[in-house]
Amino acid sequence: MISFFIYKAILVVGIFAITLFVAAYSTYAERKVAAFLQDRVGPDRAGPFGMFQPLADGLKFMMKEEIIPDFANKFLFILGPSIAMMTALMAGVVIPWGNSLVIDGKQYFLQIADLNVGILYVFAVVSIGVYGIMIGGWASNNKFSLLGAIRASAQMISYEIAMGLSIIALIITTGTLSLREISLLQTGGVGGHWNFWNVVYQPVGFIIFLICAFAETNRTPFDLPECETELVGGYHTEYSSMKLALYLFAEYINMFISSAVISTLYFGGFNFPFMNDLGLDQNTITILGTLFFFAKITFFIFFFMWIRWTIPRFRYDQLMNLGWKALIPLAVINIFITGLVIIIKTHYLN
Amino acid sequence: MTLNLFYFLSFVAIFASLLVVFSKSPVHSVLYLIVAFFAIGGHYLLLNAEFLFIVHIIVYAGAIMVLFLYVIMLLNLNEESEPHKSNLLKFAAAIAGGLLLLILVASLKGVDQLPAATMQHDVGYVKKLGHVLFTEYLLPFEITSVLLLAAMVGAVMLGKPEKYNKG
Predict the structure, then answer these.
(1) E runs forming strands in chain A
(2) Does residue B124 surpass a pLDDT of 70?
(3) Residue scoring higher pLDDT (A47 or A262)
(4) CATH code of the domain in which B65 resides
(5) Are B37 and B69 in contact (CB under 8 A)?
(6) Does the CB of B62 have a partner CB in chain A at under 8 Å?
(7) Which of A156, A160, A264, B1 could tie A130 with a disulfide, CB 3.0–4.6 Å?
(8) Separation in Å, CA of B70 to nearest CA in chain A
(9) Residue B87 is assigned to a structural domain of this protein
(10) pLDDT tens digits along A175-211
(11) CA–CA min distance B116, chain A (Å)
């Protein structure tokens, strides 16, 4: 029992630390990627290649003066960024970061909790996350903040529907909601037992999910809640110092978590090609698998940045048209075709 | 442990619900209502209904309350602009609420004579729930879906601009 608690505690603290580390270095990576895409140098002053830039930024945020506007609702003003940060960190609980390690004959799964409604839990956390933006935007008592908050809520609600529908098609093919089981079903990748990654079976679902992930994390081209040309700074116009940092940080954590979810659902999670044909023992495969998983996550984080510095922002009506008139019907057709194919496969091809 | 949790969640749910009614600002009311929904969701977890809990959070706390908050923020309702209702309206509301309470109390009266359901640990799992919904309760399930579809079509009709409705 004690060893169980120690193992869970190590896992929780480890994932928390890794999440914060990745989020901090995502800010550095974002600036470096932006610089690369725009033919600039980017941050290069703090340490070699500007490696300590996130630390310098963090220090700067903490030292800055903290301002709470006079007519703001004080409690809700503080609650907003707290909720944004908390919900961003919560989703990491159900993600399987690796298969199991065997130590002294005992199996230790590299996942904090394997809920049997795992993917729905991620949805619940994401849908709660919008309160951070809404409450913060409203409590600022500023019309630009309020507009940003209203935009955020409308956008999130619209794209959650398409996201949910794209997942339903995936659940029809896998038959489980648990993220761990979904990962295990894709074991071997493109080698050995010929289990393909889910993206092969659900290419349309993957594209819909990816677009919705951009919208849910408020990344360009869907970053209308903080559109600076129209709304000053959007929902965080009135925020300063560490509270602003929490909002910005939460966005990077969300990006990290959505990359992890995309990798788990559609790109095999901790599985890599030919993993069962190399003749390695369980622990080595698990560690390699975790490294591969992080490589996939890194790629998707890079993809988020790549898109941000390539594609301009949508107009608000374009955003709504894409969500309601393109993605949702497409997702419904995808569900229909997936169901049809599965029925034909199970009833007529066996 | 479970009993203590039950009392705690019940206390939170009732307290938050009271605050929904008594708080002056509509935005605060909505936020307390979200807290109440979470407490009720906790009760589902105590009953092993994981799926129901998650769906409750997604649908009520994550979608419906966001829309409530959205409308309240958009209309910019606050303490000053809240309309004061006439005494007649307050009186009618008190009677309607009292009647609802009467029905609740009456329905709870014979509850100890009901046979207690046997507790299965997998009662709230998705597989089990789906199986029951699509075999035993197929007709009510389908009728509910048709009802929701009708509501959805109605909402789209109402949401369309006026010029499309003619002819």
Answers:
(1) 98-103, 106-110
(2) no
(3) A262
(4) 1.20.120.1200
(5) no
(6) yes
(7) A156
(8) 6
(9) no
(10) 888 888 888 887 765 555 667 788 878 888 899 999 9
(11) 26
